[in-house]
Amino acid sequence: MQPQKAFIDNKLYQWFTKTNLHHILLWVVYYIFWVYFFQPGINRTEILVNSLVMVTVHAMVSYFNIYYLFPNFLRRRNYTSYFIAIILTISLGAFIIAGVFMTLDTITDLSKEKLFSMPFILNQAMGITYTTAITMSLKLVKHWYENERLAKDLQRVNTETELKYLKSQINPHFLFNSLNSIYALSLKKSDLAPDLILKLSDILRYILYEGSEKKVNLSQEVKYLKSYLELEKIRHGDRMKLHINIEGDLSHYDIAPMLLIPFVENSFKHGLGKDRAEGYVNVNLKTQDNTLEFSIANSKPKNGMEISKEKGYTGGIGLINVRKRLNLLYPNKHELSIGDQQEEFKVSLTLNLN
């Protein structure tokens, strides 16, 4: 967690901000600073009263600058008007201090004669300027921290929204292809159709329950990956050679659900053309040292005989979506390579699961 986010999310900071106690704390500390370092007076009572006058006027000017001059002039880039307004406000503050001291008995009569002199007014104006600059800086820093938090929260919400959108595309796409397989067998009145329905039922259960989670155990993802492979194996029969190789302990790792299935889906969608008597799909998955190595290769039909070129084909979004999901879920933690050769299509993914 970044330092500024940890600071902003701190419960004590949020409580101070909500109750505005940070304002009270600031001016109490500033008042103590005046009492012990500037000591504007001779005896203890004069110092306390005069310091209170100074700090009160400084606070009034500071808040007027922060909540009126800044939003109405500086934020709107009306620099000339802001410059004139802040000078007039600071000057007015200096004259208010002089006027209040004139009515109090906390300074000598000789000092009162100098209250409206140029040196006294300039000295007070300089002090108010310092205070205004400090409070303005604190306000800007606070706004910057809070804007950073809002920006990150907005980014998180946008990312989650986009991921949900991508999932909503992947799942119907996956279901559409599976139903096509069952439909093809039902037309042939094949006895394999019931087995396909059971496999599809397992897959749909995964999509509905585990698929809605942010992370699932890798063993679950691989289990339903196998279900899809078996579903396609039943549909294609001896026409397809399927090889699956899995190495490593899957139960120790978690992964985003439905992340690998689109690769398998794509291989079967494009791996067997309507002119090819035989084809193959080779799947390799290995886990080692918090790293997942996944690859899938499939044969390609002759040019012009791909399923993607058949009339009514509406696929092609699987790999695009999974690439987007990888960029959102595993930024700088994955390597995806796609090799499209004349007779073979291969996808390799290396994923940091730590």
Describe this structure in words.
- The chain is an alpha+beta fold.
- It has two domains: about 5-150, no CATH class; about 190-350, Histidine kinase-like ATPase, C-terminal domain (Heat Shock Protein 90).
- It contains eleven helices and seven strands.
- The protein has helices spanning about 5-10, 10-20, 20-40, 45-75, 80-105, 110, 120-185, 195-210, 220-235, 260-270, 320-330, and strands at about 215, 240-245, 255, 280-290, 290-300, 335-340, 345-350.
- A five-stranded mixed beta sheet has the order 2-4-5-7-6, covered by helices on one side. The protein has a two-stranded antiparallel ribbon with strand order 1-3.
- α7 (about 120-185) runs antiparallel to α8, α8 (about 195-210) packs antiparallel against α9 (about 220-235) and α9 packs parallel to α10 (about 260-270).
- It starts with a helix and ends with a strand.
Short overview:
The chain is 63% helix and 13% strand. The chain is α+β, with helices and mostly antiparallel strands. It has a 5-stranded mixed β-sheet with strand order 2-4-5-7-6, with helices on one face. A two-stranded antiparallel sheet has the order 1-3.
